[in-house]
Structure formats: structure tokens, C-alpha cells
Amino acid sequence: MRMISDVLMYLDRVYAREYHLPLIYDLGLNVFRDSLIKYNNNEIGLKVIEIIIQYINKSRHGEIIDKFIIKAVIYMFESLTETITPETNVNSTTVYGENYYMRYFEPKLLASSHSYFQDKVLDLLSYHSGTIYIQSVLQLIKDEEARIQLYLPDHTSPRLIDLMDTDLITTNLESIMKLENDGLKSWISDDNYTIMSSLFKLISRVDSNHEMLKRQLRNIITQNGEEMNEKTKLELESKSTEEEMVPVPTNEETSKKSNIPKKKQTRENVTQYAIKWIQNFLQMKAKYDLIIKNSFENDAGLVREIESSFAIFLNSNNRIAEYISLYIDDGIKKSFKTLSQEDVEKILDQSIIVFRFLKDKDVFEKYSKNHMARRLLQQKSMSNDIEMNMITKLKQEIGSSFTSKFEGMFKDIKISQELSSEFKNTISLVDKSIKEVNGGRKLDLDASIITTTFWPMPLNKSLDIVQYPKELQILKDKFDGFYKSKHNGRNLTWSPNFGTVDIRMHYNKKSYEVNMSTYAAIIILSCFGDDCEKQEYTFDEIFEITQIPKPDLVRHLQSISVASRSRLLKKTPMSKEINPNDVFTINEQFKSPQTKIKVLTVSSGSKLEDDSQRSETMEQINKSRIIETEAAIVRTMKARRELKHQELVNEVIKQLISRFKPQPSFIKHRIEELIEKEYLKRNDDDLNVYTYLA
């Protein structure tokens, strides 16, 4: 046709153009189309289409074909266009319609491709393997895109790719991810970053927001959380298979029996569960961090979804704030004995990771203050720098208002150390009576002066009735006088339940330095000292002498008469329980390979609260929340003077969200209380509007 067109070039330029007739080349193509390709109801054209599609399918199945034939035929089909010559105006330009490729070939190609993709999906699904499916689909897409690039027109490419992505990815990929033995959950478990990276690429083709991947990750994280709970329990159960031998009462019948084995099912196990739970949570979080980095290209949407799922899972545990505080407490205490400063720093950083997910940060504050107070008073930290480091991390995370009381506690301890040092210098220079009370031996006192503003310990006047032995009483009186001389008008309330005492004791001509609680020291010095009237006392007699509250007296007697490593006293009859008529004497048979002994008080460490303790703690927190919420309401209304109900609720939530998220119903109730107290009133014209009353 090109040759004929060249010969008749003058006809095209002069006559055809003047009379708006088709060019010779176009007219020839139309004759070819109508007389050959579309002849006899498009018989030959459809046969050619069938052959070309067969060639393409052979290529899809790996057979070698002549790609140039396909390309040439497709070019021919694109050249064959429908022509429409206007009847109304002979001078009008000829209008060209849809070409043969678009009208006949492309629909057949897409229909055939759809059937091919469907058959391929059925074949791949029969393997019940997500890995095989992902790898095969990736290769199939790569090959198909190469074919498209090689011989298909540009306008067909997006249609065929959309069809391929719909059939291979959109329709089936979510069910592939759900496969139990070779799906997303197993890939996460096995850290199969390669296949998850391929999965991410496939999903990115059809959904830039990765919604189907988000749904599956959300479900899997929930399942992983449930499995983590079970794993933590099993790990602790395997450790608690050790059995503790408990002495039985010394009557004739039971003495014939061996010691009774009893599993260690105490609050210590529950505390270890809390610590182990945090450790397992951090491992789980680290696993997903690596998946995000190595497989999901640090996609911001997936990062938010995973963190949101972790937050939901973590906050579904209503004791998580206590768990985090116990984890920090355990790490800082271990630093005192076994951990390096680098290890402790790692624990603190990990704690902040978990803390970020925590919703009720005010609950954490409550527990953390209690645990920190015990550490500071009992000197359980490696150094104050570690404690300050943790406070700094919290301040950077949530602000100085959250850490102000922690810093106040530290300030009290620092001032106390300076006061104690000054007190020691004072009594060593001017007062010899203290040594005389203790037979010429030196007595020292380190007092921690704490203020109720910062510390979680309530002022307990009932402890004033505790009777101190003369060795401790004289130090107490001297320090009282010293403190009042420096701070006129201030009074001290002593809390012996938080202190410790170092006593040198002699057993079988061997000397031991024993560190024990102040209560234990009061018992030893008041009832079993060198100048005591007798060396044998019942529980009731010890109570009458010391006036230590009975629950505390029981715990401390258990610590020094039942615990095998610190059995300074002998209890008759020997049992774990302390009864009113039990008799206590000095244990003359006591011996220890160490000369320095620390008496561990029963249940005195940082342990997970039981139900009654937790109920009391939550009651205190709820009272605090009422005060904070009402303060936020008044603060907001004072600044804005008038607000609609929903605007006020939103503003209060915004102010309190860094500590806890109050429910709208809770805020509404506090608003009603403030209306009753005449801080606010409802607008006369609109009851949904509040007005601040100055």
C-alpha cells in the first residue's frame, strides 16, 4: 500500500485533499479490512485473533514463539480503523472511528487473560502454600509485564495490569495470608523477611494504604499477644517445678513423715510473671520492628497500625502500668548486685518503649512512686545517677509536670544526706552519752526526712506508739532535737516501717554483721539484748514490749525466726504461721558461711498487688482523677468563659490525655458536680452551653 500510495501521491495532494476524500493509503487499508479481515462476518479477522492469543498463551506457558509476528499483527490491527464519511456535507473531513485492535482484539485478549489468571490461581491454591503462591505470582507478574512491554500497545498495558492485579492479588491474597501453616503468621514467627517483602510489594500494587495487610497484622498481633500470655505462664511454671521443703509441726505423728513438698505459688511468682511479661512484650515488639524495617520499607501507615495494635493489646491488660513499674524496679535493684550500668541503661530504654504505649500514665506514676520510694529509702539502687536517668527519660517523654514529685523525692534524699552528715559531726564532737548507752560502741544514724507533698507514704501517727530500745531511742531523741534546732516549728513523725539497722551479733564465738529492718532490730534489741530480763518471749509478750502493729510484727518475726538463711531466733513450735502463744528464743545454733548477712523481710519487696491492694490503689487513683478533671474543666472555662458541651469535653480530654483519657460520661458527671458547686451554670437560652461563674 505504501508503494501504491507513493505512485498516486499527486492524486492524494491535489484531488483527494480538494474534495476531502480518503487518502489512497487509507482507502487501501479500508479495502483490505472489508474485503479480507472482516469478510464473511469477520471470519478471517477472528481466526487471526485466535491464533495470536494462542501464541501469547504459549509464551505464558514457557514456549518459544515468534514475537515479531505478534507485534506485526497487532500493528496491523491498530492500522485498521473504521471510517465515517459525513452524508450532509461533502466538504466535511472524514471521521475515523475505533480501530480494529480496540474493537475486536483487546476484549478477546482481556477475556483470555482473565481465564488464564483464574486457572493459574486455582493451580497455585491447590498447593496450600503461601510461599509458593507469592513467589509464583511475582514471577508471573514479571513475565507478563515483560510481554506487555514487548508487543502490546501502551493503552492496553494499564487494563491488562489491572485485570492481572485483581485476579492474582486483590481477590486471593488475603486468604493466602490467612493460611495457618504457610501464611503471614508463620512468616512472622520464622522471621521470613524475604517472603514478607514480596508480599508487601504485591499489596502495594493494588492498595497504597495496605488495608488488607493492616487487617491481618492487627489480628495476628492480637493472637501473638494471647500466645505470649500463655508462653509467659509456661516459662514460669517450668521454673517453679522446684519444690520448697516446708517444716511441719513437731508433734509425734507428723514427725514420722518427711517434709511436705509445696510448690512456690506465692506473689513472688506473680511478680516474676509481670517482669517476664514485659520482657516477652519487648521481644515481640523488637520482632515487628525488624519486620517493618526489613520487609515493609518502614511504611508509615503500617508503623502506625502495628503500634496501634500493640497499644490495644497492651492496654487490654489492666495491670500493665504496675508491670512496667515492677520491670523498672527489678532492673534498678539488680543493678545493685548483678547488672552493669550499660545493662541497666538498656532496661530503662526498653521501659520507655513500653511506657509510650501506656494509656493510663497516671496509674504508672502511682506505682512508680511507691517503688522508687522503697528503693531510695532502702538504698537499693547502684547510684542516684541511674534513678535520675530514668526521671530524665520520663521528663523527655511526657514533660516536667509528670516528674516533679519524683524530683522532689530526690531533693529530699539529698537534703537528708547533708543533714545526717551534719548530725554525725555534731554528736561526735559534743555528745558522749550515745556511746555510753551502747557500752562504748559507736552508734550512727542516717535519717531520711521526707515530705508528704512528694512521697506516696501517708503520715501515720499510729506508729508513734512503737517502743524503741534505748540504743535507738537516744539516737531518735538526739536527732529530733538537732532537727528542731535547725527548723523551728517543724515536727518529725518517725516511720520505722521503712528503715533498716545494722547490728553486730555473736553466735558460737563468731561475729556477724546483720542488716535488718528497723522493726526486726527493735525486736532483737528490746527482747533479746544482753541486758534483757529474760531470753524467752511469746508473740503477745513481744507485742506488749514493742507495740509494733501486729501484721508487721508477724512478718518480721517470720523473717528472723522462720526463713532458713536468717533464722536468728528459734521459734517453738516450728511452723510458718505465727500464733499468739508461740515462744521465741535466741537461736544458739545459728551459723552462716558469710559474716555479713542481710535479713529479707517477708513480702517486703516490690511485688504485684493482690486484688484488695489493687482495689485500694485504683480508688486513690480515681479520687485523683476527679480532682484533675475538675481542675481542667475550671481552668478551661475560666479562660474561655463560655463553651458548648462537646467543645468543653474535647478540650478537657486534650489537656488530660498525657496522663489518662477520661470518658465523656465521666467528664459530664464532673461538670454536673461543678454546676452544683456553682463554679459553672447552664446558659438560659441554650442548655448545651456552659458559662463560667467568677
Summarize this structure as a short list of keywords or feature phrases.
694 residues, mainly alpha, Ribosomal Protein S5, domain 2, Arc Repressor Mutant, subunit A, three-stranded mixed sheet, three-stranded antiparallel sheet, 28 helices, 8% strand, Cullin family profile domain-containing protein, WH_DNA-bd_sf, ubiquitin protein ligase binding, Cullin_CS, isopeptide bond
Description of the molecule:
- The protein is mainly α.
- Among the domains are: 218-241 and 263-406, no CATH class; 499-603, 2-Layer Sandwich (Ribosomal Protein S5, domain 2); 612-692, Arc Repressor Mutant, subunit A (Orthogonal Bundle).
- 62% of the residues lie in helices and 8% in strands.
- The protein contains 28 helices and 13 strands.
- The strands form five sheets. The protein has a three-stranded mixed beta sheet.
- Strand 12 and strand 13 (689-692) form a beta hairpin.
- Helix 7 (130-151) runs antiparallel to helix 8, helix 14 crosses helix 16 (320-335) and helix 17 runs parallel beside helix 19 (384-398).
- The longest helix has 31 residues, at 400-430.
- The model is unreliable at 88-95 and 241-265 (pLDDT under 50).
